[in-house]
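dumping this here before i forget
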Amino acid sequence: MKKIWPYVLFFLLMIPSMIWIVLNESLTVGDPIVYKVVSIKLYLLLGEGFDMWKMGMLQILPAKAPLLWWIGQFIVPIGEVIGSVDVALRLLNIVVSLLSLWLFYLVTLRVFSDILLAILSCVALAAAPMFITLVPQFWTEPLQLLVVCTSLYLSVHAQEFSAVRLVLWFALVLLSGVLVKASMPLMLVFPAALAAYHLIHRFQKSQFTFNKTDWFILSVLSVVTGVTVWWYSFNLGPMHEFIQHASQSDNYSSLLGAGYFTKFAFWCSKLLFTSTSVLTAAFLLFVVLFILLRLPNIQVLHGVPSVVALGSALQLLVFIVVSSFTDNQDYRYLLPMIPYFILLICYALWVLKIKNLTRVALLVFSIQLVYFHLVQFGIARRYLYSKYNSVGSIPSDELGQTIQQMKDLNLFGSSRVIYFATLPAFQAINVEYYLLRSKLEHGGPTHVPELHDLPVVYDLATIETPGLSQEQFWRQVIETAPDFIVVHQEFHEM
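structure:
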């Protein structure tokens, strides 16, 4: 029974996110809606023949690594069965995150040989504001988190694998990570170095031998290698352009033109911001001060915990140093780095060897977990967080009503100009997803529906107006001669 209840805990940690997914019918603004559309289109292309599907797999979104929607296309039919494609796609990241929690638990248990610290690490990961925000949506970062946790598991359990098995598994994880995101190797420097150390040590003592399982893994690795090379060789140009674009930021970024150390400070602060609450940050500050006061009496032992702590610190440093060379301030990229930060917290508590302090840490992170889930449900007040959440997303029924009104007014395929004052980010991709999903969920024909060109649409809520007064802003709007301004779903003809 003692071996089972930690795994029950993982499931309990994810229940609030599962409930949120079922209750929340909003269409999230941003990349997730694009990934959902692509997943559905790939699924529908299966009915158009293998050649069409293969070209879709290759070309449908050439600028971004494709593994999320490659998997997502096979989740879409589950959505048809349960009556909600959106819920099915979002639940994919719930399953992924459950695996991440399980692997991270095994990592910390192996490193510190302390079940309380292992449980704390999982609660801390599940309580991270960025984890709570991104996991119930269709972002790629939860898959990246799984890749990091898997690589950590392989590196700290390296002695349990034969040299051949370790090479095969790590290569498979690395290539899968590259299919999730091109920059994934930057996040795996420490696990790769630790695994390499074990391999060098093993190479001196044993020979590399294959058994049947190794040959099977090698065959899977060969397929994944071929697919990775196939996709990247075809999409290298668009991928390169996207990476260049992603390394920069928009004209209103606070980091545009900022000095290197300003950017470095930004990423350091966001690491804390995406991992903790104010209460937790205050507690961690207390732990650091406590360590400094007791420093003469603390014996730092050489061994796995110290190596992992040092490696985690260096991994965080490498990521932040590289990120600070760009103008990008998209801090959701930090989600896969949170396990390294938590390992440092666990190491600090392990060094102090005060069980009651570890229990207090568990309580503090539990309070954080509850608080941010209350924020996610709109019950607690949001104090700083977060541009990636569902706030500002489009209620599905509201979008459907607006689409119907646009059809009634014959606005599809027209050259009209429309401003939406109260419907956030009304974009063609949201309309397309709504129509695709409706076709599947209501038993429509299984082909990609033709989406007529939308009229020129602007969202007043997202227009940047630096230095403009309200009067100047509306004068600018009127000068564009809009045909309609939509307020609370009412179309006002100009």
